[in-house]
Amino acid sequence: MEANAPKRKEARKSLRIKVISMGNAEVGKSCIIKRYCEKRFVPKYLATIGIDYGVTKVQVRDREIKVNIFDMAGHPFFYEVRNEFYKDTQGVILVYDVGQKESFDALDAWLAEMKQELGPHGNMDNIVFVVCANKIDCTKHRSVDESEGRLWAESRGFLYFETSAQTGEGINEMFQVTRKKTVRVQTLYLARMADCKIFSELPDPTKLIDPLPQRIFPSEVTPLESCSCLVPGVAWSLKSRGRAMQWGAVDVQQLCRRSTLP
To answer: How far apart are CA 231 and CA 185, in angstroms?
Structure first.
């Protein structure tokens, strides 16, 4: 190989997202996933035995995102199987049939089951929840209005979509928005974790001395008076000798590595 040959840019590691679907039996969870992953509709009802699985890959700039979707059986008989799959979930699709009021009323019970299985230390704040009002093609038998379903979702901070697995209406949009928001939430979550690690290793800012770049502070050795996060994983405000400057993530990490106590 020639010495001057350009180096091949290494592909970034694939990002994996875990999404689960929850809801009563026969609300169309499996059909929604097949419509999205396999672009087809299965008219004959086949009950999910335990857990079904679908995966789709999306290329976003230089990174591949794998969306792993776990379809959980809605029958109470499969509770012991379901409870093994709640952990490490990043996205949840709560599905109900707009023609079955009982499936809509059961959504609270599904949330309670998940919370119970995650335990007292389970964090649901970083999970993206999406309410899927399915089978909107069956307009004659609709018993849950859009306004009622949307109000239930938005009052809990959840996304809301109306879908039809049979016609495909709303399916792609729902999964695309779910994927984008899940990636965004997880990215911010990991950034916050990185912030905690950075500042847990940072000495008392009033005692910290560091040779800061002269383009920012002209003094050769500058005491750092305070530091605060402006945007998780992106920018911090560092104050020295009464002057506050915004620093990026790389600068703060270098500051921590180079810092020495007097």
So the answer is: 14
CATH number of this structure's domain 15-193, picked from the four choices 3.40.50.170, 3.40.50.300, 3.90.1570.10, 3.40.50.1100: 3.40.50.300
Q: What are 78-111's pLDDT values in tens digits?
A: 778 888 888 888 999 999 999 999 999 999 999 9
| pLDDT averaged over every residue in the chain | 74
